[in-house]
Recover the amino acids of this structure.
């Protein structure tokens, strides 16, 4: 009897029995790991949880709440107060085109419902930013699966959902950064799939999304020519015509941006494509004392004399003055400018110098920042060498989008809109390394 009982327990502990007991859990995990609904849900839960636990919705009230949205927050407060799209730095300075309109108007809508610069507004805006960030898992999954494999798709989407550095911007900054990442990833996915679709709807979506992207962040438009040419070329290889679709997409894009262009012309008396502050931004990276980083002390929010100039001269003359100063500095020594551009290239991908209360913390953060860039470049090189479908489009995205920051100045936040694609390439190269390890293990 005792022998029979012992045999029964042994059978229960056998590998086969254990496998059967875990089978339902493994089956459930197999469904969850490839479900974008689950991935997005977990990502949103973690982000909102951090907003609550970290109290990130409690912005400091110093400088009259400037840290709550910065220039976009100031413009949103002006809109919600009934003063129009104005006053990007706080004092009454009149109409502005310093920032693109989409996110300030969106923020103003939240202010109207939940109050200007209130904790409730902060929580709502950060939660919505977190939703944008979580939803980015969907185009990440689809892009990675199309170009590489389902394994890369699962790894990339979960990495975006779980990594703490990804959550930083959406849980701490009231800005368009997370929306830009979602839009750019969605536009890349749309460009990749245009060759598979035949009716007019993808062209309508293409024009509409690019119009929204332009009103969200004008730097995103740098990728538009490559995305459009890619879609046309891939369709042409399949014998599909695209002229009517291109006309439709162009018309929809123009219809999206035209009202804001008209507003700018009526307000300032000249053509301004979405925003007007490039000359001022160029000066913040080029001038006496330039070292490849952002000369923050020259910004009107930090420079009292600069703000007085802005108020006295008006926005367009002030920006023209700053642009002339930067261009004169560049023309005076092109070799020096090339050196600064190279430094800005390094800082964009490796991280600009940082200060930290703990001396080694800045080095660790920049090392991790650089490591993600190295993985991305490595993955891109392998994808191009393997002639993966869509790898060339990734290449042009990573060439075109950051180019303006090499000329002006870099910032860690400016890399975030292309970090979904960086995550895909990083996971791809890690899975490739995993394959080599698996092939080598039997011989070991």
């Amino acid at each position: 009897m005792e022998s029979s009982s012992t045999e029964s327990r042994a059978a229960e502990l056998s590998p086969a029995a254990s496998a059967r007991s875990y089978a339902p859990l493994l089956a459930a995990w197999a469904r969850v790991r490839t479900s974008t609904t689950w991935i997005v849900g977990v990502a949103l839960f973690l982000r909102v949880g951090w907003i609550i636990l970290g109290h990130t919705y409690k912005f400091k009230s110093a400088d009259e709440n400037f840290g709550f949205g910065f220039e976009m927050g100031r413009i949103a407060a002006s809109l919600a107060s009934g003063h129009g799209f104005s006053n990007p730095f706080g004092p009454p300075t009149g109409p502005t085109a310093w920032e693109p309109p989409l996110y300030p108007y969106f923020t103003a809508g939240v202010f109207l419902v939940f109050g200007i610069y209130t904790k409730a507004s902060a929580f709502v805006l950060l939660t919505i930013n977190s939703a944008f960030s979580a939803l980015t898992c969907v185009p990440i999954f689809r892009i990675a699966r199309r170009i590489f494999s389902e394994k890369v798709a699962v790894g990339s989407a979960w990495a975006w959902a779980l990594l703490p550095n990804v959550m930083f911007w959406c849980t701490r900054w009231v800005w368009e950064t997370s929306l830009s990442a979602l839009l750019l990833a969605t536009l890349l996915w749309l460009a990749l799939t245009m060759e598979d679709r035949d009716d007019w709807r993808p062209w309508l979506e293409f024009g509409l999304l690019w119009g929204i992207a332009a009103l969200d962040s004008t730097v995103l438009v740098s990728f538009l020519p490559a995305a459009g040419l890619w879609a046309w070329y891939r369709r042409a290889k399949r014998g599909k015509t695209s002229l009517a679709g291109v006309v439709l997409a162009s018309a929809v894009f123009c219809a999206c941006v035209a009202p804001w262009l008209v507003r700018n012309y009526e307000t300032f008396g000249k053509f301004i494509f979405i925003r007007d502050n490039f000359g001022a931004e160029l000066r913040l990276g080029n001038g006496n004392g330039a070292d490849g980083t952002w000369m923050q002390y020259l910004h009107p929010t930090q420079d009292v004399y600069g703000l007085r100039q802005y108020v006295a001269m008006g926005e367009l003359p002030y920006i023209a003055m700053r642009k002339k100063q930067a261009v004169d500095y560049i023309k005076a020594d092109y070799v020096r400018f090339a050196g600064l551009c190279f430094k800005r290239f390094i800082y964009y991908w490796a991280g600009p110098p940082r200060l930290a209360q703990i001396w080694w913390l800045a080095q660790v953060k920049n090392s991790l920042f650089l490591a993600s860039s190295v993985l991305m470049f490595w993955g891109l090189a392998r994808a191009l060498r393997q002639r993966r479908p869509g790898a060339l489009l990734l290449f042009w995205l990573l060439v075109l989008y950051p180019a303006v920051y090499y000329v002006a100045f870099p910032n860690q936040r400016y890399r975030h809109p292309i970090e979904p694609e960086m995550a895909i390439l990083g996971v791809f190269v890690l899975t490739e390394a995993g394959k080599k390890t698996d092939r080598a293990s039997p011989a070991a």
